[in-house]
Amino acid sequence: MNVSWSLAGALSAVFLFTLVTAFSARTLIQILWKKTIRIIESDPSPKNVWELVSLAFRIDPEKMVENNMRAAGGVLVKRPFGSPKRLPDFEGFTFLPRQMAELPLPQDAEVDTQTTIGPHARHPLKLDIPLLVSGMALGMAVSQRLKIALARGATQAGTATSTGEGPFLPEERKEAEKLIIQYSRAPWAKDPEILQQADMVEIHIGQGSSGPGPSQVPSFHLKGRAMQLMDLAPGGTAEIKSRMPGIHRKKDWRKLVNELRQLTDGVPIGMKLLPGRVEQDLEIALHAEVDFITLDGAQAGTKGTAPILQDDLGLPTVIGLCRAVDFLEKKGVKDQVSVIVSGGLKTPGDFLKALALGADAVALGSALVFAASHGQGSQKPLPWEPPTELVWYDGNLSHQLDIDKAARHTSLFFQSCTDEMKLATQALGKKSLRDVNKKDLLAMDSLSSSIADVPLI
Question: What sequence ranges are listed for the domain Glutamate synthase (predicted)?
Answer without folding.
Answer: 116-430
